[in-house]
């Protein structure tokens, strides 16, 4: 989940799912592959719709509980105030994201890239990425039909966001 605010990319890294305790803490479902990043946040962007920034909050405390992160925010000092934040996305600016290893990409960097066969045929545009436990699947659409391509080296031979393209192999009759 990400959106542009004044031409600046904002990325959701969590979503508030409920209040936690009676002191205004919120329970956050983690939407990032780097949950430890919550430890270094000082300010977050709150967005209910995912389309715009609704407000900002300072992070006063961070702790982990099971598969969730518990945040203490400066705008929530009671259970009622925390419950009013339910459903908000916790977002950060693009420059606050963790750097990825070479050859790895954030999904939002790939969406919209043109997808070509090894022979140079335009197959369509990458519309979505389904994250699966075994492997991700690229959803490629040409406007008439969609094809799913496993995001593994056997099928994907080149990813070049700077050139705006992905090149895939047709091994196994995928397309």
Integer count of domains: 2
What would the CATH topology of the largest domain be? Elongation Factor Tu (Ef-tu), domain 3
- What do we call the CATH homologous superfamily of the largest domain? RimM
Could you list the spans in which at least 5 consecutive residues all have pLDDT below 50? none
* Spatial shape: elongated
Q: Helix- and strand-based class?
A: mainly beta
Topology:
Elements lengths: L1 E4 L2 E13 L4 E6 L12 E5 L7 E11 L2 E6 L5 H5 L5 E5 L13 H4 L3 E4 L4 E9 L6 E5 L4 E5 L5 E5 L4 E4 L7
Parallel strand pairs: 8-13
Antiparallel strand pairs: 1-2, 2-3, 2-7, 3-6, 4-5, 4-7, 5-6, 8-9, 9-10, 10-11, 12-13
Distinctive features:
175 residues, mainly beta, Elongation Factor Tu (Ef-tu), domain 3, SH3 type barrels, six-stranded antiparallel β-barrel, six-stranded mixed beta sheet, 2 helices, elongated
Short description:
The chain is mainly β. It has helices spanning 79-83, 107-110, and strands at residues 2-5, 8-20, 25-30, 43-47, 55-65, 68-73, 89-93, 114-117, 122-130, 137-141, 146-150, 156-160, 165-168. Helices cover 5% and strands 47% of the residues.
Can you walk me through this structure?
Helix content is 5%, strand content 47%. By secondary structure, it is mainly beta. The chain folds into two domains: 2-96, RimM (Elongation Factor Tu (Ef-tu), domain 3), CATH 2.40.30; 107-173, PRC-barrel domain (SH3 type barrels). The strands form two sheets. The chain has a six-stranded antiparallel beta barrel. It has a six-stranded mixed sheet with strand order 11-10-9-8-13-12, with no helix packed on it. The radius of gyration is 19 Å and the shape is elongated. The two termini are 28 Å apart.
């Amino acid at each position: 989940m990400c959106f542009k605010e004044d031409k600046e990319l904002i990325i959701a890294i969590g979503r508030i799912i409920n209040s936690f305790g009676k002191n205004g803490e919120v329970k956050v479902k983690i939407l990032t592959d780097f949950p430890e990043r919550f430890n270094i946040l000082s300010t977050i962007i709150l967005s209910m719709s995912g389309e715009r920034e609704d407000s900002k909050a300072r992070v006063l405390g961070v702790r982990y509980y099971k598969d969730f992160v518990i945040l203490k925010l400066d705008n929530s000092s009671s259970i009622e105030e925390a419950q009013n934040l339910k459903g908000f996305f916790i977002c950060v600016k693009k420059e606050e994201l963790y750097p990825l290893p070479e050859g790895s990409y954030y999904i939002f960097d790939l969406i919209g890239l043109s997808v070509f066969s090894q022979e140079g045929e335009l197959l369509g545009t990458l519309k979505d990425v389904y994250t699966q436990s075994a492997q991700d699947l690229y959803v490629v659409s040409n406007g008439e039909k969609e094809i799913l391509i496993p995001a593994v080296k056997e099928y994907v031979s080149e990813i070049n966001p700077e050139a705006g393209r992905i090149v895939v192999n047709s091994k196994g009759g995928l397309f």
